[in-house]
Amino acid sequence: MGKTRIIKIDAEKPEEVYLREAAAILREGGLVAFPTETVYGLGAAVTRPQAIQRVYAVKGRPADNPLIVHLDSYRRLPAVAAEIPPAARVLAEKFWPGPLTMVLPKKATIPAEVSAGLPTVAVRVPDHLVALRLLELAGVPVAAPSANLSGRPSPTLGRHVAEDLDGLVEMILDAGPTGVGVESTVLDLTGPTPRILRPGGVTREMLEEVFGVGGVEEPDPALMESGRPLAPGMKYRHYAPKAPLYLIVGEPARVNRYIKERLAVEGKARRKSAVLAYEEDRDYFPEGLFFSLGERNKPEEAAERLFSLLRACDEAGAESIYAAAPSRTGLGRAVFNRLWKAAGGNVVEVG
Asked: Which CATH architecture fits 245-349?
């Protein structure tokens, strides 16, 4: 293919001419990266199996890792889902458009490439004007994983997409920073009890307002590593910077002491280290590189910043990264999940 067209587009008043051009690319079997409220997605029309195959090839994505189908409206759901349980209707009314993906039985017309051969389809309606209008103009469901090379931090800026995919896709619609910053919550509705397969922008607490306390299952991600992934972000190492990342879990003061000790060791070895920690602890880390996750009691700040910070660590030449674990409540659960996946087993519990 030729050179990627990178189009700057207004997030609030997107220029129709560019959206129509992008929609035509999708319908014709091309790939378009576009913003959502969570991260940038790499879109391919589900009516074009070869385009779906290109998504896997461009990203270097394992073939057994399913994609999320994006719709412009709940009304489109019967086009992709064979069954729509009452719970799906309630959730869509409350959370769509928004960062909630529902896993439902798929229609036979959905290509196997989209669902990685599974009998289910993951689907959502994004809460972003550019995405919604593009999907409406395309007129077909669009499968869109995050617009990055597989395993790398997800893109929350158009330039992140260009860093990974320039020259590999037809168009990138750059509408500036995304909002939520971490990917959507993936909720499996095919069993007797709703099950969170990936935490995200719709928190467990928000879901329990619908299903009641204890009415939603959330298995330990470590127990879901083996076997076939049922949704994106479950099995493989994801979101990882180039340098090894160490996730430090425990009481904040002990976490800070541990990281500071590690920085001293790294400094003696003349290794450049980075720290992902909270604004309250900035003065605790005079050595190395400090990247602020925001205030500890505002997990939405950490969610919004996380992937950009991981890429910033790469740009700064960090040879190792130490991250203070967030609280595993609310949106902090999603931030912890992304850091846990990025660490790839490098998790240290400090007592």
From this structure: 3-Layer(aba) Sandwich (3.40)
